[in-house]
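Dear Dr. H.,

I hope your travels went smoothly. While you were away I took the liberty of generating a structure for the chain from your last submission, since the lab meeting agenda had it listed for discussion. I wanted you to have the full record in hand beforehand rather than looking at slides cold. The sequence, exactly as received, is reproduced here:
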Amino acid sequence: MGIPRGASALVGVELALGVAVAVVSSPELQGGYVRDREGWAGTPSGGLLAASTSRERLRKLPIARRDGGKSRTVLSLRLPRIALGDRIRLNGEVTLSTTCVDPPGPDCIGRGYRFDPHLHARVVLGSHRGETGRGTLPVSRRASVTCEKTEPNINHHCPLVITRGSFLVRRPGELPCRPRACHLNMVVDAHSGRARGGEVVVVGSAKQDGIGGGDGARLNAALAREGARVRSVVRSTGRRRTRKLPASFEGGRRVVYSQRMERLRAGDVLLVRARQRTAIKRHRYYIGSRVVIATRPRARRPGRLTRRIVSPNGAATGSNGFNCTLGPSGFRTPCLRKKAGLAFIERTPRRARGQIRPLYVNLVSRSFPKVGNVPGSYPSARVLSGGRLAVTRLRAEQLNPGEPPLPSREWARD
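The corresponding predicted structure, in token form, is as follows:
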């Protein structure tokens, strides 16, 4: 996936926790924000817009013999018409899972294999939803992991997290796509020099054993228009709400980090980034996580209020995880867990008497030993220091008469 000639003069690719942007067509005003048919939502002025998709384009990814040999687009967001000075921020995540255990069973998908595939994900800007390579512009760093498939250190599920990415439109005429027909594509690939053909990894979880089920794939984006006054406020915490994740085959969810967010209002965009360090002993453990928006700091699920006023469905990320192992693997104890996501405030959160109420962004995790649901007493996974939850609130503000707009770089500071 190379950068087209002259692309360095076209956009500035930089780190910034993120989301992508668009112009709204056929908007409908709903509680202080505008939503279009593509799912983009934002302020009526169009100064700040955001979108999120979990619509996967494929369920199986072929394993190539060489890096990038069979790249595919797994998630795609279409941008509305973009223009000079627009700044787009993005993030996302996807889980790729190995299949065909040794010996292969009836659930085997594709040809059986005994090697550890190398997995990669990156977001690119392209002209159509399936575009992956030449002619696209990379707008994020590449996330990579070697997913261990062999005993005793099987990872099985391997999340790839794009924690942040952004670009500034400098020369619309030199974009790799027409300004009114650009797409953000999350491109994934798997490879191994030992692949013979017919081997695959599954996009998502081969088993629905994340928190609440599902595989949690998402691509998120938010855009600030040139000249719009978009303010960025960052709140973060490293305080652990729990230091242990009980070994529980059912339930066992705990809030690891919680960040209070004050004075939110309709049209705000929350960009979320999290890191969690977890240690295990005696057994391989599954570690699953998600980020929810709630009205209490110890809430493990979105409440009725936040499901109604925060999209998508009161959660900033989906649910996914991996097997943390004792020996060498892509996720070896102490295992580092990353999460990245976005939430959009559709309506101002209020108490019964009308006062604005705070909301809490909670990183929720669980763990259980990979021992085949054998009853017994197992040690808890330990949450170590060194993790953090960071929330960036973006808000489009009205300009006073004669007031100059913020420089386009101002809103990206986090």
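Two observations you may find useful: The first helix runs from residue 7 to 10. The radius of gyration is 21 Å.

With kind regards,
E. W.
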